[in-house]
Design brief:
disordered C terminus; Immunoglobulin-like; mainly beta
Length: 767
């Protein structure tokens, strides 16, 4: 007995043609494949385009796309239209190909496709004659062989004849051989000598078996026998079937002489479980008798269970509670008794299970919480297994999707963001970008960015920054000034479009990077106005003696505030030097009598920015131990304007006289107090008035050259090698006052020459 267990449908493309491979003898209406899907056609237009199947060479049409079944037309399914017998179409050919054309109109479109008919084991092997006779002498030697007739099987490949078997006996054995073309045949080999006096004839049963599943053979079901008392032709009995339906005649054959009833077709217990065969026996004179053979078909487990999906809820919300029913399954098995008892199971790695319901029905329910962000769809495999021996099983794949629920807030890629902005930036320039992701789907996962409302230095944060709601790019609304604002923080909100929406925020720290936009400011000596100060240098001053100091600051920070001091012009270039970083002016060598009494220095203070900014100042030094030695000091206050010369001369005379008398008194007092120090001009230090220093100067947050707020009184000794720089008192104010804001200056060679000329004229025109 044989039953087709599985139909394997396969479609592939070769050389531009679609090929469908399927087994022969499929029932009418069986689905071969979806030609519309395979050709990429719109199934909704098949009807309007008059889709149809044409065959090449006016052959029978074995498949169709509608057959008045609109559901197939709408789905583009290709179905079996006629019974297909591979042996009838192609005989013993290795392949059975049927070419077809798929035609569409409006516009005209033609596609070729091929039906590849696969062989099934639907034919049993048959011998040309039902009785093979050999006449063998009893003197035949052991090992003698006799060629047997080859059995014929209309099937091909494994379904053709694969082996022969011989009924057990004591005289002969069977030797199966293979020809060059692969066909099998048998030899009868004498295994034991014959003895005619003991046995005149030997009757054996030779069976040919093919390689199908299950294998088929020309098997004898039953043998009927009738006896006749007459002799000769009157006693020769022949057998035949009485009236049989056509379908039964295709299943059974009765041997005219032997009365063997053989099975020649496929019987199916599920189609018919019993057969009633009327038998007629006749002698040579036409006398007949009748009998009936009843055949009971024994069920074998030849039908695999079938799983039918009755209903399915898809998609399933990801917040569905455990135990939610999402589908109903029905299982069927055509076999009987234990062969038809079915068990269903589901793979273990999915959050679903099958719960038995009424007979042959199961509910597919959830066993845990679903998370679309972890797994958005499931391919659930249900296995149905019967209790036959051996058991048969089948599988059913169910595709189930999970619907999104807004259960995830946006998550920023970083815990915090840092942005560095060069001061004096252009308004509208981008400074950084933030990015947040939301694993939810569609609007639930669409992220919108905004700035949380807050105040910064009394102004709304929106007046400083803006953010692109779609991209997360942050832009500067204004130009920043490092000297006014060095850093600040804002909160960026990321919100999805779910209902209700979910959100999260992140801190963005903005740091203003300093730019070298502030020139150094010289605190001492004052670079502004026409006033000047003169410092006395003792004639006995030795090398490396401190004679003065230039004090400067820079409102910038970092290397932009690193200041260096340089003497760019001097009356005697080799006499004085200045500390590059300290600004201290010292003698390079001992003072000599040949040195000029009046020494003018022009000092440049430069920062370390790119490009560098600078400021200049002038210092006036007198090499003398006594003011009486420098009567021309009165020339220093003479004005350059010739129209007011007399007025200024009078003022200068009075001023110099008063200054001279004051110095005389101070010198006498100093000499009186410090008799042991004749080299010193003053008893104490030359004071740098605090008026030259801003009373409250400091940078914001200590990033400039001054680290705290101090008021300075500087005392520079005129004869010692060390400097005294005294911190008098500190102020609590932390910012630079408006009237002391540093100004940007740029020195040039012309300004330096003009400043030097003014100093020289002032000395020469004084009284």
């Amino acid at each position: 007995m044989f039953c087709l267990l599985f139909f394997v449908l396969m479609a592939h493309t070769a050389y531009g043609e679609v090929i469908y491979s399927f087994p022969e003898e499929m029932k009418r209406g069986s689905v071969i494949g979806n030609i519309a899907k395979d050709l990429g056609l719109d199934v909704n237009r098949l009807s309007s385009r008059k889709a149809r199947i044409d065959t090449e060479g006016n052959r029978k049409r074995y498949c169709d796309i509608n057959l008045s079944l609109m559901r197939n037309l709408n789905t583009g399914e290709l179905i079996v239209a006629e019974r297909i017998d591979r042996e009838e179409i192609s005989g013993k050919k290795a392949s059975c190909l049927i070419k077809n054309e798929f035609v569409l109109e409006n516009p005209l479109e033609l596609h070729h496709f091929i039906l590849n008919i696969e062989d099934i084991n639907d034919n049993s092997p048959q011998f040309k004659e039902s009785v093979i006779k050999f006449e063998i002498q009893e003197s035949a030697d052991k090992g003698s062989s006799y060629l047997l007739e080859e059995a014929y099987d209309a099937d091909i490949g494994r379904n053709a004849v694969q082996s022969y078997t011989l009924q057990n006996n004591e005289h002969f054995i069977l030797n199966v051989l293979t020809r060059a073309n692969g066909r099998k045949y048998g030899q009868l080999v004498l295994n034991k000598e014959l003895d005619r006096e003991q046995q005149k004839e030997v009757t054996l049963i030779l069976t040919a078996v093919d390689g199908g599943t299950p294998p088929r053979s020309d098997t004898v079901v039953v043998t009927v026998s009738a006896t006749d008392a007459d002799e000769g032709q009157n006693g020769e009995v022949t057998y035949a079937f009485g009236h049989l339906p056509q379908k039964v005649q295709q299943l059974f054959f009765i041997d005219l002489v032997s009365g063997d009833i053989k099975l020649t077709g496929l019987i199916d217990y599920e189609i018919e479980s019993t057969f009633e065969l009327p038998i007629q026996a006749k002698d040579g004179q036409g006398l007949a008798s009748y009998s009936t053979v009843l055949i009971d078909v024994i069920d074998v487990n030849d039908n695999a269970p079938i799983t039918i999906l009755k209903s399915l809820t898809s998609p399933v919300p990801e917040n569905a509670l455990p135990g939610t029913e999402v589908g109903i399954i029905n299982v069927q098995d055509r076999d009987s008794e234990n062969n038809g008892q079915v068990r269903c199971s589901i793979q273990q790695n999915v959050p679903f299970k099958l719960v038995p319901s009424i007979k042959n029905y199961y509910s597919l329910v959830t066993t845990g919480e679903l998370d679309r962000e972890l797994l958005s769809d499931y391919n659930i495999t249900i296995t149905a297994t019967d209790e036959g021996s051996p058991p048969l099983s089948s599988t059913k794949n169910i595709h189930l999707t999970v619907a999104d629920v807004n259960d995830n807030p946006p998550v920023f890629q970083e815990q915090s963001y840092r942005a560095h902005v060069q001061e004096n930036n252009k308004p509208g320039s981008s400074i950084c970008s933030v990015s947040a992701t939301d694993p939810d789907w569609r609007q639930n996962g669409t992220v919108v960015y905004s700035l949380l409302s807050s105040a910064l230095n009394g102004a709304p944060v929106s007046s400083f920054l803006s953010i692109n709601g779609d991209t997360g790019v942050i832009h500067a609304v204004r130009s920043f000034d490092y000297e006014q604002l060095k850093s600040f923080k804002v909160l960026v909100l990321a919100r999805d479009n779910g209902s209700p929406p979910l959100s999260s925020n992140v801190t963005v720290s903005v740091f203003i990077t300093d730019e070298n936009d502030s020139s150094p400011q010289i605190l001492y000596p004052s670079p502004e106005g026409n006033s000047f100060m003169t410092e006395m240098v003792p004639k006995a001053a030795q090398a490396r003696s401190l004679v003065s100091k230039v004090i400067a600051v820079d409102a910038d920070s970092g290397q932009n505030a690193w200041l260096s001091y340089h003497i760019i012009k001097a009356t005697d270039p080799g006499l004085f030097t200045i500390g590059v970083h300290s600004g201290e002016i010292r003698t390079q060598r001992d003072i000599s009598e040949s040195d000029s009494m009046k020494q003018n220095l022009i000092v440049s203070v430069r920062d370390n920015g790119q490009p560098s900014l600078s400021a200049t100042c002038a210092l006036y030094l007198l090499i003398s131990d006594n003011l009486a030695e420098v009567p021309e000091l009165k020339d220093m206050s003479r004005d350059e304007s010739s129209s007011k010369l007399t007025f200024y001369l009078i003022i200068a005379l009075v001023s110099v006289s008063t200054f001279f008398l004051t110095f005389i008194i101070i010198i006498l007092a100093v000499r009186f107090c410090r008799r042991r120090k004749p080299r010193l001009l003053f008893d104490g230090a030359v004071a740098i008035p605090s008026a030259y220093l801003p009373p409250n100067y400091a940078e914001v947050e200590g990033a400039g050259t001054l680290r705290s707020t101090y008021n300075y009184d500087a005392y520079l000794t005129t004869g010692s090698r060390t400097s005294d720089f005294k911190f008098v008192r500190s102020y609590n104010e932390g910012t630079l006052t408006a009237d002391l804001t540093l100004k940007k200056t740029q020195s040039t060679v012309d300004d330096l020459e003009r400043l030097d000329a003014e100093m020289s004229d002032s000395f020469q025109k004084g009284i």
